[in-house]
Amino acid sequence: MDFENTVRKRRSIRKFTDQIFPEEQLMKAFELAVLAPNSSNIQTWDFHWVKSPEKKAKLVEACLSQSAARTASHLIVATADSSNWKRSQNPLIQWVRSVSAPKQVIAYYEKVVPFSYRSGFFNLLAPFKWIIFNSVGLFRPMMRKPVTARDIQEVAIKSCALACENFVLSITSLGGATCMMEGFDEVRVKRLLKLGRSSRVVMVIAVGYEGERGTWGPQFRLPLNEVVHQH
Amino acid sequence: MDFENTVRKRRSIRKFTDQIFPEEQLMKAFELAVLAPNSSNIQTWDFHWVKSPEKKAKLVEACLSQSAARTASHLIVATADSSNWKRSQNPLIQWVRSVSAPKQVIAYYEKVVPFSYRSGFFNLLAPFKWIIFNSVGLFRPMMRKPVTARDIQEVAIKSCALACENFVLSITSLGGATCMMEGFDEVRVKRLLKLGRSSRVVMVIAVGYEGERGTWGPQFRLPLNEVVHQH
To answer: What pTM value is reported for the model?
Structure first.
């Protein structure tokens, strides 16, 4: 499908039909999802496709039994885990070597990333980082974050959201429909998927085909001049 | 451009040519950006298009003078401000009335949103919210967040990221190139744009046309089976 039509066609669909969205098309959407830009290309995202009927039923409950979850062909839990920098560190170092990137880029993955993605046990490193970043920042432009574990999570969550947007647009371009859900019980979702402490549930995405009264009506957005500001 | 090609063509470009990306196409990209799904449709995002040469020079510095910022035709600062729920509340109530949405939806925008988007002065409401959400959560599925001001910001940042992804894909589909930058001095950027306390800089987006050696080489991603998990 044409790009602009895909963006215009995508809506959050609250009710899906009984028709099952094909699994191979879902895989295609994952493939395009991970092509999203992301912080330092560290790919801190994960996508949990909950297929087992028992687990899916529990996930629907954890999504407060909302109709988008109840009627979906597939439910995908998108998570962000800042500790995933360890997963991609070596592959990234090999990759930057293979494309003969500047030496600083290799040093970046060897030293800067581990420094940035650690805040210490109980954020013990955070006060030191904060003092350094903000002292230097008095004299010259300086990144002030990430400092705390929460700051690092925020970076990971942002990247995961970018991939989720690619994902829902991909499903739309393949004729399907989606609903990004933030109405869920994070404690129950994490327990169900046995997710670690540093993992955060970014959203649960329902996938299917649009049913009758899948939306309440035409899309509403604020006028563009209220959100785009020229300086 | 075709959707899949757009996603595959988008790369983070670190060096742009001298050719200026047309302003009317930039406006088109903003138009598609705000069609992204977002939390409760509250549209907490803002896009600051820094056009004045003096301010743009300062913004380049605040972006640590990286080449993507230095060589860009346009620099856009994407921000998230959770207090923006006040901006969209009345228009949203009018909209849900006009599409005859269920009564609960009107109550949602009248009562639930103001309750969810407030954490009180110095997070004073947060402990009470936390106790309520987690006590109820012992017995039945329950949203555990947002509780603190930071939680509310996180929701706003996530929505803004979704719009940013639409934005960069739109620019790509129009033949342009982009670079999402997180390497910036948030304190200086906020001062430059006179942003309020509750506003957070989500990213700075550089827009232009891809220059020579705009990337180091082919795109690298982890194998899909390392990030997609079937349960």
So the answer is: 0.97
